[in-house]
Give the backbone structure.
Amino acid sequence: MTNQHLNFDTLSQQVISTLQADIETLLNHANLPSPLHEACHYAMTGQGKKVRPLLVASGYLTVLASSQAATIDTLPLFDDNCRRAMLAVEFLHTYSLIHDDLPCMDDDDLRRGRPTCHIKFGEATALLAGDVLQTLAFEALSADLPGFAPISNDKAASLLTLFAPRARRMVSGQMLDLNAENKQVSQPQLEAIHRDKTGALIEAAVLMGAACADANDTQYQALTSFASNVGLAFQVQDDILDVTSSTDTLGKPTGSDEGLNKSTYVKLMGVEAATDYAKSLFLAATQAIDDNFDKNSSLIDLAQWLWQRQK
């Protein structure tokens, strides 16, 4: 067995380059009319960190590295099913960002350092772009696509079973978040919001990557614990960065949570306590991997990289 630990920067570069090519493939396959195609392409090709596709790839490689037959030092790093899962989470995430930025939601005019989709193309086109990106996320997991081997019915069903309910939870979490504006909420209530709004898609990403590598039940349990803790930590970090970072650094407006009077971890517990809480969540996430997988897991590298966002 070759169980070579993949440098995280190398993994990130491979994910981004693979994803960029596959995004072009899926958008061209969709054959969308103008200006819908241009709006979708604009939204999908911004300079995002690609955290969710990285979680898919890291979940896949973490499980693969535990196999007695695993080899992770040759290209391509990802099989076609893993590429499909990376596409699905990135398309779904981008749709959610387009809709979150709309005037009827958070009313933001900057995303990833550029004008938001509705500022660039108009509100109606942006709304439709979000709609079609959501449907393409599901198509990525099931349809025959150029440049991809056909996906088996069993594998498509297993991926959709992990993906669909968490896509629905993401939307439910957004509604709960809107309901909590201008209200005082408890920590359990706030966590219920963000385990759905932010955490659900992060869970889907990790678990779909694991499914592509045929994870067993014990591995799924460990990865679910990892994803649950990272998903919540990611949101706590976002709340902190909204008050401690700059618009230029984040690529989106800061201070918007306070402007909308949203319920946040900073508002609930303060920056210092929220930072300590995020750290404890990251530690719990990495412990779940340490206890069940190789110590050099790509998921641990990813969790450490995410923690560094805050510093």
In short: The chain has a mean pLDDT of 90.
